[in-house]
Each structure stands twice: as C-alpha cells, then as structure tokens.
Design brief:
Layout (H helix, E strand, L loop, with lengths): L2 H16 L2 E2 H11 L8 H13 L3 E5 L18 E5 L1 H11 L9 H9 L6 H29 L5 H30 L50
Antiparallel strand pairs: 1-3, 2-3
C-alpha cells in the first residue's frame, strides 16, 4: 500500500468513526476538514471505499442523499450508498491510530494524524510530536549546511527563498515545542480525572481548523494554520 493510499484509508476510517456517510459527504469532509485531500476525486476515493468494504472494515447500506449532494455518481449512477464502520473497522482504525513510526510524522501524514489527536492516547501523541520535531530538526540541519555551502554562489532571490523555507521549518519546530510542553503539562485534557482522551472533539481540530480562541487546548501557530515545512533546499 502506498503512503498516499494509506493516509486516505486512515482518514476515511476516522471520519466514518464519527458517523456513517455516503461518498459525496466523505469527499466533502476530506476536502474541507483535511486539506491534504483537496486534490482527491471520486476516482481515488471510490476504490479505497471498495477495498475497505472488501476487508470487512466498512459495510454499504442504502440511504438517502443529502440535499447538497450533486447528481455526480460514484459509479455511473446517483450516489445512494451509505458507508458505515464495522466493529472490525473500528479495531483497524484503533490499530492505525496507535502507529508511531516514521510515516506518522512525515509531511503527508502528520497533518491528518494531528486532526485525529482528540481520539489518540497521550503517549502516542507525544511520540508522534517528538518524532515530527526530530524529523524537522534533521531537515533544518541539512538546510543550514546546504546554505553554508552555496551562499556565495546564490543570487539574492534564491537566497531569500532558502531563508524563507528555513524560517518556515523553524516556526514549526517552535510550534511543536509548545505542543510538547503543553502535553507534558497535561493542559490538553478537558475531561474528568483519569481521562486520557479529549472529549470535546470540536476544540481538538488541527490549528488551521480551530478558530475558537480557547486558551486551554494545545497552543496554536500564529496565523491559525499548520506551519509549512518546506524543504526545497534540503534535496
């Protein structure tokens, strides 16, 4: 399974854990809630759904189409299939949610993993955040070394582009440091004593989604969006 299809599987299972949806609703949520999927189409989503159904993680049910759904079909007809997570699908999502390997903190996966931090245990959140920080610190070292080697050969505009990329990574590292400090201090918790998972899901959206202004959750990056971890100069 490719990284791209793997992160799509994770996102679909996570969204369907919240409530059953049909294909159009899923695509809309993927596009609006998880920006990494803006370029996804039914051509990408439908095969993923069929695979998840085939694995026994989803079931298809007949259901009505919401009023804002277009007539665009998923497979040559008006979409009327509702996808519901099975018990095995919930177990599969829990398994994926517990993964803390390198894929969890790479660029393509991290934003999606962060979007489901409200359903993730504290120890897993910490490992993902620390892994992401370590990855970006390695990237910064490479960018600084590359700039030091090529500074004299670059024109002013290319040099500014490299500086911009490096500053973006530095901002995300600072943001991650704040998140990690907040996690260690336990300021992420909103439930009763002993609860390790967030119960108010709307307040645990990733930074680009949370505009509530609350101060008791994870610190948000200035500007309200996830920092851009550009590393064009690291290659």
């Amino acid at each position: 399974m490719s990284r791209r299809s793997g992160v799509l599987e994770f996102a679909v299972l996570g969204l369907l854990r919240e409530s059953p949806m049909h294909g159009y609703e899923l695509r809309k949520r993927l596009n609006t809630s998880l920006g990494v999927f803006r370029a996804f189409s039914y051509g990408s989503l439908y095969p993923c759904l069929k695979t998840l159904v085939g694995n026994g993680w989803l079931i298809e049910e007949s259901g009505s189409v919401s009023q804002d759904a277009p007539a665009t079909p998923l497979s040559g007809r008006r979409a009327k299939i509702v996808y519901r997570l099975t018990a095995a699908g919930k177990d599969r999502f829990e398994e994926l949610l517990s993964h803390t390997g390198p894929d969890a903190w790479e660029d393509e996966h991290f934003g999606v993993r962060f979007a489901f931090f409200g359903q993730t245990s504290r120890d897993v959140r910490m490992r993902v955040l620390e892994g992401r920080r370590s990855r970006l610190e390695e990237r910064l070292d490479k960018m600084r070394a590359a700039m030091a080697r090529t500074r004299e050969r670059l024109d002013d505009y290319t040099l500014e582009l490299q500086r911009h990329g490096m500053e973006s990574v530095e901002r995300e590292v600072r943001w991650l440091n704040e998140l990690i400090e907040s996690e260690r201090a336990g300021r992420h918790q909103r439930g009763g004593a002993g609860q390790d998972r967030t119960t108010e899901r709307d307040e645990d959206r990733p930074p680009q989604q949370d505009q509530s202004g609350d101060t008791d959750g994870p610190p948000r990056h200035r500007g309200g969006s996830l920092p851009d971890p550009s590393d064009d100069t690291a290659k």
